[in-house]
Amino acid sequence: MSPRKAAALKHTDGRSLREHLIDTAVRLIAEQGTAGLTVRAIARAAGVADGVLYNHFADKEELLANALRAHVRAVEAELGELPEPGTGTVEANLREHLAYGLALHRAILPAFTGLLAQPEVLARFGELDGHGDDWRGQLRRYLRTERALGRLAAGARVDAAAAMLVGICHETVLSALLPHTGTTKAPAVRDVVEAVLDGIAK
Question: Which GO terms describe its molecular function (predicted)?
Fold first, then answer.
């Protein structure tokens, strides 16, 4: 083991060097975004030689995709827990879900904006298997469970309802990214949820 690699491992707190590199990239993304983030910058911050990254990742894109996913997970953890099916009211719970989704998308927007010129990183990110544990997956499971519990109509098209709520979040992000004329005020969370429930409530 090289002295530099050994020195880096002293700061990994029991994590593998691969995990240390991902965590370092996540920290840099949180501090300065993804625009202009280089292998050299990550290596320097991690305390390793540039080439060490390629012992653990096929390329820069793989490292950044994994770091981007870890960054999203960190933001999700900061936003707290989502309501459990069968508790409270469906309307109040969906408001929480939508507010969570909007906050999530606003928080991760800078990281994704910096990668618009690197579509390969975004493609790799999309290929990572999250086992449906992201917000969208949780929202779909929430609605399916509420339907199974009888708190939504038996024939409720819950996947379509979830897509509508996710779409509101995406529209918010795209409105911030793309030039447009005039100003379009985002609909209130209450109004969106009421419109969705018009189609799936009992």
Answer: DNA-binding transcription factor activity; transcription cis-regulatory region binding
Place of tokens 């080439």: 51
Judge whether 78 lies within some domain: no
* Distance, CA of 160 to CA of 112 (rounded, Å): 25
- pTM comes to 0.82
**Domain contains 48:** no
Report yes or no: 112 and 126 within 8 Å, Cβ to Cβ: no
